[in-house]
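Holo model, S-adenosylmethionine. Inputs:
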Amino acid sequence: MDHILPLAAPMDARNKLLRDEARALLDLPFNDLLFRAQTVHRENFDPNRIQRSTLLSIKTGGCPEDCGYCPQSARHATAVENEPMLPLDEVVRTATAAKENGATRFCMGAAWRGPKARDLEPVLEMVREVKKLGMETCCTLGMLKEGQAEQLREAGLDYYNHNLDTAPEFYGDVITTRDYRDRLDTLERVRSAGIHVCCGGIVGMGESRDQRAGLLAQLAALDPQPESVPINQLVQVEGTPLAGTQQLPWTEFVRTVAAARLLMPRSFVRLSAGRTQMHEAVQALCFLAGANSIFYGEKLLTTGNPDVERDDALFAALGLSAA
Ligand code: SAM
Ligand code: DTB
Ligand code: SF4
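Output:
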């Protein structure tokens, strides 16, 4: 009977294989990696179309969690001011403007560990109203409890963003107030409620290449794979524990995008936070590596993003159009 593995083993074995595969991709010569990524990208997508999502922080700052990268944690002394939940009309106005600018998805973020029952009501109203505008709706509200994903789905939520952030073994260096399993549980709740999954991570937090492979393997092992995969470059914010981390070479960022494309061929890979600090030539390489989505609009949640005129000019220069 020694051929029978313990129950957990097949998944672990698959994860290990995926991790080795991710590592081998990240180790390829840059040109080989980009060529392969662009080839697979073309087999699955129109290479000249980029999906655009606009973010809005509907409840800013004062978060009880200790995520080392985040300017909204109450535990870090940053310049972010705590704000109560935005009123519905302001959310609808911002979403309308985003739609007029060409965004197809509107993502509402809240600085919570997770929503309390009374927090969720106004968010459900926002989801209903944004949906009525004809946009795809997305929320990122932290951990969800039993039944909350269903409530969001019922209100018309299309996507839920919840990131794995980094490799399991590096995670504890970045966040201590919730663990990897909590994140996987929320992702399972989202998936079983019939909401599309938006799940990615952050690079440039001081992790190794092998740990970037570990993150990618975890994302690729989600079954089904996430529909959207945001790859964020750490935005270093003064007052956060991760401010001052050694900058990741741009080649490593592009490699991560390319490997994400190869490991998750049908997912939208989003070139996410960090574009303000990124040369446009590097962004162009990310599109070549298979990124086909961006955050669009001058603000992410609390930090800056390129303004729309600048992005429009970049799209024009590259012959890219909206998806
Ligand atoms: N509070 C909720 C949560 O953590 O799930 C939702 C909002 S939280 C700000 C959403 C995601 O933004 C985080 O999971 C993280 O991946 C990303 N993020 C936050 N601060 C960042 C930073 N400084 N640079 C890059 N990405 C960041
Ligand atoms: C994601 O992966 N990146 C976005 C969105 N999902 C919610 C957030 C980026 C936040 C960057 C720091 C800030 O602006 O506060
Ligand atoms: Fe809170 Fe989310 Fe920021 Fe973590 S990432 S501190 S949970 S707002």
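The first strand starts at residue 49 and ends at 59. Residues 160 and 169 are 24 Å apart (CA to CA).
Archived with the compound record.
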